[in-house]
Amino acid sequence: MVDEFAWTKTSKEEAVRRNERRRLTGWIRHQYKQARLRWLPHYKGRDLINEMVKKGDVLDVGCSEGHLLKELDDRYTPHGIEIDYEAAQVAGEYVSEHGGRIYQSDAFSSLQEMEESLFDAVMMQSYLEHEIKPLEVLRETRRVLRPQGFLVIKVPNLDCWNRRLQGNGWPGFRFPDHVNYFTPNTICEVIE
User: Fold this and answer.
1) Closest to 87 measured CA to CA, from 61, 66, 65
2) Nearest-CA neighbor of 120 among 50, 45, 56?
3) Measuring CA to CA, how many Å separate 52 from each of 10, 104, 121, 152?
4) In sequence order, which residues have a C-beta less than 8 Å from that of residue 89 and are 6 or more positions away?
5) pLDDT band of 137, cuts 50, 70, 90
6) What residues contact 85, with CB distance under 8 A and at least 6 apart?
7) Which of 134, 162, 165, 187 is most buried per CB count within 10 Å?
């Protein structure tokens, strides 16, 4: 299942499926996104880390090929958890050159094996909606964060206007990849 549902594979398949199903709206959405990213870069996770954490060890849970870790500057030592072997290898090349480590396993198992208080920040961007044990992962994340550490979570918002507008065609619906759907209220409840 790890190979069959690897994000590096399913994201490409999903893009093709969406484009076939909604050619015109998909093309318009793609053009809009490309223009927005070109003229208004969108780096919230990196910016939050830069703002909140002066320096230290940063863990990206579900790091894929390490794209977010590569956006961090040299004040940070990048670390990642990635279940997909091939993506973990790509991320590992970059991370090892910068003093960090990639844990190639599922997040819960990797976090359980770590010592307490290892990281100054943990990023979970486009990850938690894929996790079948979100509460357990968050508990372990708290354990591996240093006392003044920060956790950055980004998940699709089930309560957003885009989902209401697109209904079942909303890009956040990704079966079977997404096993959790959060609203601002439910993500806060899980975190609390």
Assistant:
1) 65
2) 56
3) 33, 27, 9, 10
4) 104
5) very high
6) 2, 104
7) 134
Burial of 44 (0-12, 13-18, 19+ CB in 10 A): exposed
Which amino acid, residue 7?
A: W
Amino acid of residue 190: V
Amino acid occupying residue 95: V
DSSP for 56-120, written as a single string = EEEEEET-TTTHHHHHS-TTEEEEEE-S-HHHHHHHHHHHHHTT--EE-S-HHHHHHHSPSS-EE
Q: Residue 65 and residue 182: Cα distance in Å, rounded?
A: 25
Residue 172's pLDDT is 83
Q: Side chain identity at 91, as an amino acid letter?
A: A
In whole angstroms, give the CA distance from residue 45 to residue 54: 14
Q: Report the residue count for the chain.
A: 192
Burial pattern 10-40, b for ≥16 Cβ within 10 A else e, equals eeeeeeeebeeeeeeebeebeeeeeeeeeee
